[in-house]
UniProtKB/TrEMBL annotation:
Cofactor comment: Binds 1 [4Fe-4S] cluster.
EC number(s) reported in the record: 3.2.2.31
Family statement drawn from the similarity comment of this UniProt entry: Belongs to the Nth/MutY family.
Free-text function comment from the UniProt entry: Adenine glycosylase active on G-A mispairs. MutY also corrects error-prone DNA synthesis past GO lesions which are due to the oxidatively damaged form of guanine: 7,8-dihydro-8-oxoguanine (8-oxo-dGTP).
Top-level taxonomy: Bacteria, Pseudomonadati, Bacteroidota, Flavobacteriia, Flavobacteriales
Reaction equations catalysed: Hydrolyzes free adenine bases from 7,8-dihydro-8-oxoguanine:adenine mismatched double-stranded DNA, leaving an apurinic site
Enzyme class of the recorded protein, top EC level: hydrolase
Entry keyword set: 4Fe-4S, DNA damage, DNA repair, Glycosidase, Hydrolase, Iron, Iron-sulfur, Metal-binding
UniProt name for this protein: Adenine DNA glycosylase
Record carries keyword 4Fe-4S: yes
Pfam short name (any one): NUDIX_4
Keyword Acetylation attributed: no
Cofactor(s) this protein cannot do without: [4Fe-4S] cluster
HhH-GPD domain span: 35-186
Gene: mutY
Length: 346
């Protein structure tokens, strides 16, 4: 069986119709690849269309305020992707005269671009035979060739890259790379793939050895940490609210939120005085308070779970930096904050 030809033929019969597959424009392909990092196509497609419509060229993206970029990205998560996207657009315009790099070795130098993304852009936009290796490809190769090397180990990353590079169709790398990714997404699925209709089933070693569910092998993940967030939703009699920008490095850098106090555990209404002691905001003002959500809202991230409470602080007047309720939704916010704003209905 010819692995590459089988995959490519399957793709010709099952290809999905996406807008980024109708272009060789590296800017559009780059946008799609960054958006689809850690994001499913169904969720990412509307964002891709919004970015292409709002920023039709790299020059448009480069000159946009970062706040506008983050606002358009809102809801996708992993906001460092948006910050890197904006940074890279400015770099291409200011340092490369608006010309997108056209080789893998130059593309991978761009901020926010790793091996997979550089390979995808180089092959799809410029027909360079650079093999893509993403979760779908790891899964197909580990099953077909019965490879037990952990895919998230240093050895595994190198081993699968070398193997993928030997399999890529050097005459049509763009088609092959898209084919193998689609095949993993739709046919060689993580759970319960229909191996009976798989065109590779006669030669798949994992199928022969009944190891489909055991592959690919992954090293155990780092333990997820638990954090306890208390957001102070400070409201005054003039319908103003305190809102602040996170400036420290982190996943929510440059996004906006209500004043935040982190505690070592989830606190009750009776323990609210702990927050009053910890923040200057509440020391010299008279206020009434209530707990909006009696049970913690748990926001799960890849490396930590945020146990969150929203405290409603009502007072007569707030500092001059407070903003009107009506402007809250114009700021880029983490989805946790955005959901609360919509739910509370300011």
């Amino acid at each position: 069986m010819n692995f590459s030809k089988t995959i490519t033929y399957w793709y010709s019969e099952n290809k999905r119709d996406f807008p980024w597959r109708k272009t060789k424009n590296p800017y559009f392909i780059w946008l799609s690849e960054i958006i689809l990092q850690q994001t499913q196509v169904k969720q990412g497609l509307p964002y891709y269309e919004a970015f292409v419509s709002t920023f039709p060229t790299v020059f448009d993206l480069a000159k946009a305020p970062e706040q506008d970029v983050l606002k358009l990205w809102q809801g996708l998560g992993y906001y460092s992707r948006a910050r890197n996207l904006h940074f890279t657009a400015k770099h291409i315009v200011s340092e490369l005269n608006g010309v997108f790099p056209n080789t893998y070795s130059d593309i991978i130098k761009l901020k926010g671009v790793g091996d997979y993304t550089a390979s995808a852009i180089a092959s799809i936009a410029f027909n360079e035979p650079a093999a893509v290796v993403d979760g779908n490809v790891y899964r197909i190769l580990s099953r077909f060739f019965d490879i037990n090397t952990p895919i998230n180990s240093t050895k595994g990353i190198k081993e699968f890259k070398v193997l993928a590079s030997t399999l890529i169709d050097k005459e049509a790398p763009a088609i092959f790379n898209q084919a193998i990714m689609d095949f993993g997404s739709r046919q060689c699925k993580p759970k319960n793939p229909n191996c009976n209709i798989c065109p590779l089933n006669n030669s798949c070693l994992a199928l022969k050895k009944n190891k489909i569910q055991a592959l690919p092998v992954k090293l155990k993940k780092v333990k997820v940490t638990q954090k306890y967030f208390n957001f102070l939703v400070c409201i005054d009699s003039n319908n103003n609210v305190l809102f602040e920008q996170r400036v420290k490095k982190g996943i929510w850098q440059n996004l906006y939120q209500f004043p935040l106090i982190e505690t070592e555990k989830s606190i009750s209404v009776d323990e609210f005085h702990l927050l009053k002691v910890k923040t200057y905001l509440l020391k010299d003002i008279d206020f009434d308070y209530s707990l909006y959500n009696k049970t913690d809202k748990i926001h799960k991230l890849s490396h930590q779970h945020l146990h969150t409470k929203f405290w409603i602080i009502e007072t007569k007047a707030l500092p001059k930096e407070a903003i009107p309720f009506s402007k809250l939704k114009s700021y880029p916010t983490p989805v946790l904050i955005s959901n609360f704003i919509n739910e509370f209905n300011f």
